[in-house]
Design a protein that fits this description.
By secondary structure, the protein is mainly alpha-helical. About 65% of the residues lie in helices and about 5% in strands. A four-stranded mixed beta sheet has the order 2-1-3-4, with helices on both faces. The mean pLDDT is about 80.
């Protein structure tokens, strides 16, 4: 039995690793492309933050508003004074035309601070008004309008200031770097990881079974003295190993690029996890890949060719992605052990627990054992399918 399984596994490994195009497209390219894409997105966000100074053309800018803007560290505002009605009209026309450097035109009444100080809510006189002109078709103009509106709201609140919130230099956010990293990883990585695992399996498994049916080479294997159970187990184990390598490429690309995608934050790093977390994660991944490969192998055995197999597998992949999204919805994250008998969902929840540093060993054990059992049942079903000439030789 051992020699027969090793022979099947060697055949699958040889078929995969001697095909340079398959190795490039399924093993190397996903990780490289994900790393480059996420890194470029992060750099784009970073450049947007660094270079995105908001230019506001103002008329009669009061000293109080200028001082408030300078004291607000998060605002990068540039005030450009308008002299007279003609310059105001020119600025409004440029803003309407969508010229790049014109983000907002703000018109204050003369002696704005004095008018505000003299105004009383009990009078029937209208309150001093500020005119803010912006172009809603321009995202930078919309952002400038929101910033200026917030600044004026802060100024209005400060006029009747009775108490301050977090006015000191203390650190009021009590979340540690480990907590922040765990929160981000636990929300994003399980969904990405389950998607990568399924994609890796989908890239190699249909070709191994449906592809051989299509070419007629599997018929040669079935007429040899090789036991069908050995053939099924050999394919499942070898395809699982290859799929893990494919998923690992995508996983590494994601983990390495995630800090750049999040704006280069020093808090986003995987150093908060120890060998224990990675070891448990590996167990969950191995058992999950066994289940996914078994499912895809069974579907591929039913299909007549690779195209048909891919069409049947795609809805299953969509379901797995939807299960991955449960890591982002707290109400869908269950902790009772019986929920961890559901294949794929149990893996996502275990990954979420591991990345959030709130793992439950009982649930992880239930997940691994149940996944291995499901893979064993699937291998038995695949063996029976290999025994059926009606299935294996269907045209």
């Amino acid at each position: 039995m051992k020699n027969n399984m090793i022979t099947v596994m060697k055949k699958e490994f040889t078929r995969f690793f001697t095909d340079r195009r398959m190795v490039l497209t399924t093993l190397l390219m996903p990780g490289i492309m994900i790393y480059l894409m996420y890194s470029l997105m992060g750099e784009g966000f970073k450049l947007g933050e660094e270079d995105g100074q908001t230019q506001i053309y103002v008329e009669e800018l009061p000293d109080s508003i200028r001082t408030l803007a300078e004291e607000t560290d998060m605002l990068d505002l540039s005030f450009l004074e308008l002299e007279g009605k003609q310059e105001r009209e020119e600025a409004l026309e440029a803003l309407a035309d969508g010229e790049e450097e014109y983000h907002l035109v703000a018109v204050f009444p003369e002696n704005f601070d004095a008018l505000v100080a003299e105004y009383s809510n009990g009078t029937k006189e209208p309150a001093p008004g500020v005119e803010l002109y912006y172009n809603s078709s321009n995202t930078e103009s919309q952002a400038a309008y929101q910033i200026m509106t917030g600044l004026l709201d802060s100024y209005e609140s400060a006029l009747a200031n009775k108490f301050d919130i977090n006015a000191g230099d203390k650190e009021y956010d009590l979340a540690s770097e480990e907590d922040l990293a765990a929160q981000i990883f636990s929300m994003m990585v399980p969904m990405l990881l389950i998607t990568f695992l399924f994609s890796g399996c989908m890239a190699v498994a249909p070709e191994s079974i449906a592809g051989e049916k299509e070419r007629g080479t599997i018929a040669t294997l079935l007429v040899t003295p090789l036991k069908r159970s050995h053939l099924a187990l050999g394919k499942i184990i070898s395809l699982s190993a290859i799929s893990i390598l494919c998923a690992l490429s995508s996983f590494l690309g994601t983990m390495l690029s995630l800090p750049k995608l999040m704006g280069g934050s020093e808090n986003i790093n995987a150093s908060v996890y120890t060998v224990k977390e990675y070891g448990l994660l590996l167990l969950v991944i191995l058992s999950t890949v066994l289940v996914i490969v078994t499912i895809i192998s069974i579907v591929s055995a039913f299909a007549k060719n690779v195209k048909e197999a891919t069409g049947w597998i795609t809805p299953i992949m969509i379901i797995s992605v939807l299960l991955g999204v449960t890591s982002m919805v707290e109400s869908l994250c269950k902790t009772e052990p019986f929920w961890f008998l559901i294949p794929l969902y149990n893996s996502v929840q275990c990954m979420t627990g591991i990345f959030s540093l709130e793992m439950n060993l009982v649930n992880i054990i239930v997940t691994v054992v149940s996944n291995v059992c499901y893979a064993g049942i699937g291998a038995f079903v695949l063996t029976k399918m290999f025994d059926s000439e009606k299935i294996m030789f269907a045209k």
